Amino acid sequence: MSDLNNYPWIKKNFNNLNISSLPHSSLIEGNKGLGKAILVNEIAKTILCLESNNSPCNQCNSCELYKNETHPDFIKNNDETKILIDEIREIIDFSYLSSSISSSKVIFLHNCENMNRNSQNALLKTLEEPTDNTYILMTSSKKRALNPTIYSRCNKIKIDNLDQKQINEWVVAQGFNDFNYYDFPSFLNPLEIVQYIDEGDDKKFIKFSETLLQFSNKQISINKTTKYLIDLDMPLIDKINLLVDFYKNLLSSRISKMPYSGKFIKLNDLSFSTINLSNVINELNDLREMIYKVSSLNESHLFKYIIFKLNSIVKLQ
Fold first, then answer.
1. How many secondary structure helices (H) and strands (E) does the chain include?
2. How far is CA 59 from the centre of its chain?
């Protein structure tokens, strides 16, 4: 089990809850990588705890069973990528059982946006007519991906995104002292970033940002930058996403007057029209839409055009 003290934004959410008066059904919403499951586990452990109703004691038999993932009064979906009706039926059957150790039972549906229509309809009756002392805790990374009636039956708990300063401080506190926020796409949340670093996949983001940094500072040519993008072992849609993110950050930094720091500090000296750069970003967004509609695009022509255009817009002062 995770130590809640290591996730201050999750701890803040948990401290704002009154577990003893929690409704029978709750939906925890927030983007991927924010730790929704960590919050659910802390709530579930508290509900099942034999000694406390405010936070888990972490010492009683119930807390030990939960820690060892053997608690008989707790059930969680097995497959987080799809939740089929058979699994919902199993969960419904569980809800009618008497509790074995704790005074309540907890059902955890992780990534419940992956329920199909039949699964959602099957769950609705349980939400509308909950059995005594049974709590259903659900997480979702997608807004409004569920049947509206499900939303109406649930207490909503929202985990907000962290800002740049919070992400920097938290990742560095995990022991990654050379971490730089701008090496990673802004759409990644802290737990995703740490996972990429742990798995060694952070290097592709760092190389990408360093290449665009050198290109922006006129340290490498249009041709070399284009070749790098073409040769990059990554789906085209991901390359476009990273390009959009890099230049959206540049645009945002200029508009919000929040300067870059560290190795990216030279980006503060660039000269460009915010309108022109915004137009290029819109073109990239249009290309992203086209990728979903067209079976294949000529990457060489595409990147030559985009990089040439960026080179003419973004200049050194």
1. 13, 7
2. 32
For 199-230, the pLDDT digits (tens) are 999 999 999 999 999 999 999 999 999 999 99
pLDDT the model gives residue 125: 86
What is the Cα–Cα distance from 98 to 73, expressed in whole angstroms? 9
**Domain layout of the chain by residue ranges:** 4-158, 164-316
- Rounded to an integer, what distance in angstroms lies between the CA atom of residue 25 and that of residue 130? 8
Q: What is the pLDDT of residues 253-298, one digit of tens each?
A: 999 999 998 899 999 999 999 999 999 999 999 988 888 777 677 8
Least Cα distance to 197 among 221, 219, 181, 220 occurs for 181
Cα–Cα distance, 9 to 170 (Å, whole number): 10
For the chain, give the number of residues.
317
**What is the CATH code for 4-158?**
3.40.50.300
127-40-154 Cα angle (round to 5): 25
What is the predicted pLDDT for the residue at 292? 79
Token representation of residue 177: 């002292």
What is the band of 68 on the pLDDT scale with cuts at 50, 70, 90? very high
Angle between helices 236-256 and 202-216 (to 10 degrees): 60
Place of tokens 């452990």: 45
Question: Rounded CA gap, 170 and 177, in Å?
Answer: 10
Query: Hey, is 106 helix, strand or coil?
Result: strand
- List the structure tokens of 2: 């995770």
- Picking from 38, 65, 51, the residue whose alpha carbon sits closest to that of residue 137 is 38
Closest CA to 93 of 119, 131, 48, 40: 131
Work out the angle between the directed axes of helices 222-231 and 202-216 (0-180°, nearest 10).
Answer: 160
Tokens for 285, please give them: 């967004």
Strand order in the sheet with 25-29: 74-76, 105-109, 134-140, 25-29, 155-158
Instruction: Describe the chain by its helix, strand, coil percentages, rounded to 5.
Output: 55, 10, 35
